Amino acid sequence: MKRLSFLIILLFAGFIGLAQVKYTSSSRSAIKNYERARYLLDLNNFKDAETELNAAIKQDDEFIEAYLLLADVYRVTFEYAKAKEFYKQAFAISTTFAPDRYFYYAESELKTGNYEEALLHYKIFKNKGNPSIEKIVLADKYIQDCEFAIEAVKNPVPFKPENLGANINTKDQEYLATLTTDESTLIFTRQINGNEDFYRSYKTATDWTNAEYLSNNINTPSYNEGAQCISPDGQFLFFTGCNRPDGFGRCDIYVSQKEGNGWSKPINLGFPINTKGWESQPSLSADGRTLYFVSDRKGGFGSYDIWKSTLNNEGKWEMPVNMGKKINTAFEEQSPFIHPDNQTLYFSSDGWPGLGSRDLFISRLDTGGNWALPVNLGYPINTYGEERGLTINASGTKAFFSSNNFNGLGGFDIYSFDLPQKIRPVAVNYVKGIVYDEDTKAKLGALVDIIDIKSGISLHTSYSDKFDGSFLATLSNNKEYSINVAKEGYLFYSENFSIEKNQIGKPIILDIPLQKIAIGKKMVLKNIFFDSNKFDLKDESKTELQKLIEFLKENPKTQIQISGYTDNIGDDQSNLILSQNRSKAVYTYLIEHDVNAKRLSFRGYGATSPIADNKTADGRALNRRTEFLITGISE
User: Fold this and answer.
1) Where is the OmpA-like domain (predicted)?
2) Which of 11, 39, 200, 486 could form a disulfide with 492 if both were Cys (CB 3.0 to 4.6 A apart)?
């Protein structure tokens, strides 16, 4: 309410000062009502002031000051349609009495979608008013909005929002939906009696399950929880908590880790993410290494800017960097959402040309690593109202948002819509799996490392859930990957897979059994590569070899045999020699990288001991393999 009082002082001061000299009304009763209204406004009593001003107008229907003050009351209380009507009536009486008020008349029209009228009245304000430089700058900005909006309305984009239904939406307020990459889990904010808490729903074949209270560890009865994002793998929830005892400022960003079906106690991310100011609305990149968020800290372009911070190799967040003038403006930017493609950013802004209030925008990362100028998502996705809080699924086809502009179930509801082609991100896919003990079937928390085979760069490093063994990683299409899963006391697991260019909506599902270290246990090194009929290790093999070296260092008492196998194409003697040379190549590489030769042996087995049918190409590919066998464990 203090903010409204401050606005009243700013917006009414000049006009009231003039009005004290002489009123346009000669009706004493009307003037008495008017002056009583001014007194009530000093007390922030808008309702009774409205009553007095209506009474003044009833006493004198040409009392311009009363019309203008009533219009101002409606405007600062965000009742723009009423404000517009009373400005209109005031200027119908006189077009010259208070030309500076054309600015606010135009604002009320802009906020209700009357763009052509608003454009006209902003221009009148500039030509006939006595505007300050600051007001001229604002008028020019809003003129640009009006011109943009007029064209946008003429060229609408496809938009058919669908309510997510009664299992998620209620008579209360539901908003700020976030989605896991596999689209199996939706987490959103529900406000009941002014208190914000998180709720969760699961996707079934036909609908969303009835939303359930997320966690007593995260939700509190005393503080609001909101403005959240969930990591693409569903393992971490980043959210905003305000005025908490462990807070650094007004609002801070916290993180909680998934523990089976529950969540851990939240941890404040601390400095340098949080400051004495206001930090909120986190969005995490698919690899979990870049956090985008909103802050009013020093060094920005406006009151609220979008910033980003990267996670260094020590697991600490680095000093945040402002997203720069191609994203941020002198106005407000909020609600960042970085798509899992890591190159498409959606956000809301009232600084870039739009249709009024905050609009939703898209910016794409170019090949040089620079963000392009934002593009408005278009009408009617954006309207004269306020749009914010967009979430896009991994395939880039569907968007989720909240609104109270439709006939929903009550207040703000959560909706989805098909995203127009021109504003879609790059489609991505994902790999999902379960890690477990091969013998006991117990689920395991293990280190999961996914690597781009061609570049050798690790794209995803995380742990599978220690309760249910699950993991999920978002990956680009049209690439080949290797995956290594490791846990103390177990042989590591290796696999490779590819995601085709058009493999949208068809994720990779892996079943990963880990074997306890024991004599006689063996595993296939699926990411050791040779050219056909050759035994020179290809560069793509080095990542897997490094994993084997790390395994031997972490288990210094183990001795292993490197075993080579071929398919049955060719004569037995040639296959035996080839397999022996390939196993020797791995053996030699390990020795050259400081593995004690006494712990190693190698042997070629040719086409013997096939693990698949040699009658098919796929079967022969599986038979051409390199394994390691535990041959001894010293005391």
Assistant:
1) 517-634
2) 486
